[in-house]
Amino acid sequence: MKEGRQVSATVAVIGAGVIGRTHIRILRELPADEGRLAAIVDPSEAAARLAVEAGVPHFLDADTMLDAVRPDGVVIATPNALHVAGARACIGRGIAVLVEKPLADDLDDALALAGEADHAGVPLLVGHYRRHNPLVQAARTAIQQGRLGRIATISADSMVMKPDSYFNVAWRREAGGGPVLINLVHDIDALRYLCGEIDTVQAVTGHAARGFAVEDSAAVLLRFRTGALATLTLSDAVPSPWCWDQTAGENPAFVRHPGNAYRICGTEASLEMPDMALWRYAGRRGWSEPLTREVLDVRRCDPLVAQMRHFLRVIRREEAPLVSGHDGAATLAATLAVHRSAKTGEAVRPYAP
Questions:
Q1: 347 and 200 Cβ atoms separated by less than 8 Å
Q2: Which pTM does this prediction carry?
Q3: In 3-state terms, the chain is what percent helix, strand and coil (to 5)?
Q4: What distance in Å separates the CA atoms of residue 48 and residue 41, rounded to the nearest whole number?
Q5: pLDDT tens-digit profile of 225-267?
Q6: Which of 78, 160, 184, 203 makes an SS bond possible with 15, Cβ 3.0 to 4.6 Å?
Q7: Which domains does the chain have, with CATH numbers?
């Protein structure tokens, strides 16, 4: 695709697991003059059937597809360990790429990949789709406008019950396949986007609930460069509504429950998310005075659809990636720091730009 050309972009999807199938569905549902599914790469028979249903070619490996189809963009939705190789294959051919989070399993690989994309002039977007949610964008605007004052504390919950069948895939029971890198990485990225860079990370993890080698629970303390403190509680082994996915209603695959996953508390006001309730004093301040509750008016949309539309504009060089490779590497660094801290028992400093 030529730079600036206002035509439909063709996008191939590598990996037809849960998130890959979601990207495929979104591309199929978009207006044809905006973006089109070009191919599916996945060795499974289910992916082959899906390609027939979608009317696009099916490939067993990425290199063959890239050379045969030459799509304008590619979504990498493979297991984490394959993200770097898939992205490099695209960057080497000058093809814009959206890499699902995390960008890599290893920070050095993530930083190297980000540098390679910069050097080649190829757009690299990391799939931290929560940033595309209007709720998160509205919260960021409120914080930047000073409506909350100076942020003092943040509380974030990510507690769910994954079904037993989820763990029939072997890599989900092994190191790197647990909820820290799969789920908590989204919360850490959202909090970086809202509250700034993270200075230190302190954490403990456990696997007593399921007994797998990989963690099933974690408690994390973040100190931001601004001095704000955040506590994050994580588990994928408990019946609970207190998780962004189950309270925000952004993903139809999850039943939506009432409640909030984040509480961002500042010196002027506090914000509950995703209900977007802003708590503050109308007059005199102090715990003996009544608080007022204002619900911010935010028009909701599917952030994965918004992310795909953004990626299409990135492909056409109309926008820079909202989450660049270096930005994704910074979130990865903070997330990997959770495991480093849990192993050493000490507060650790993640890499950050």
A1: yes
A2: 0.92
A3: 40, 25, 40
A4: 9
A5: 999 999 999 999 999 999 999 999 887 778 999 999 999 999 9
A6: 78
A7: 9-129+304-323 (3.40.50.720), 131-301+333-344 (3.30.360.10)
